[in-house]
Amino acid sequence: RVLAYTRQGPQADEHTPLMLRLSLLLLVGPLDALRVAVTGAGGQTGQHAFRKLLALPEFEPVGIVRSEESKAALVKSGVPADAVTVADVTDEAAIAAALAGCDALIIGTSAKPAPSGETDESTGRPIFGFPNGQPEAVDWLGQKSQIDGAKAAGAIHVVLCSSMGGTDPGNMLNALGRESLPDGSTKGGDILLWKRKAEKYLIDSGVPFTIVHPGGLLNEPGGKRQLVLGVDDERTVGERSIPREDVAEVLVQALRIPAYRGRSFDLRSMNEGEGAVTTDFAALLDELGGRDCDYSLGKMA
Fold it and tell me: Is the dihedral of CA 230, 235, 237, 238 positive or negative?
């Protein structure tokens, strides 16, 4: 093997021919830095991806956040002010302008449920809502505008962070924020159905894509687990969860490794201490054996 793709990037070893080593240096040098937009850069998983890109010389990341407050928080934490842009992803013109000149896009935006303060009288459980935007607006229209912006920017590579659960319309996540109307119909919620619609739109757009469906997101350090890929919400080995930082690592590696293009897969992990910590992300993709998620399964909004 001449090159190995690791957390530090493509690595040359003593068997790599000199000219190839020089070419590798040129490919990842600062003059050829890949300009990558990251939406949701003020959030959790998106911010992990943004910070990873900031630390790598082959990338010139642009973090896209929704508000000046989010930008100020990033700048206060040490992020250069010129690396952060404010744009609402539901504003097609604003997001298209933010993506102009970019070579790739990581979509890290998602509607975020939160307790409304009310309780369901029939179940006694808290009622959740989406105070910062319903899934239809954020996970469908917002992602659609980002995909359209990527196409306008020159059909740049889009890496989409979505979610597992899309094959099951009855998944409990779809009930969050859903309101029953007097006529028996419903409105709001259905987050996985809107995400799946956006995924299919991306696939059909003609833009180079990678779609990652993480399992339950953990706020734990990354780089300490064996990662597991699969499709269609299967769970043969490992847990149904994964640290956010490990998800962000895969989003970044999808930009580095050409084989990740045109792929849609689920991402989970083993428990810490089980298996071998994943460091070779090209080999990780081989676990799929050429399989991708089947969009004839489940339901879309």
Answer: positive
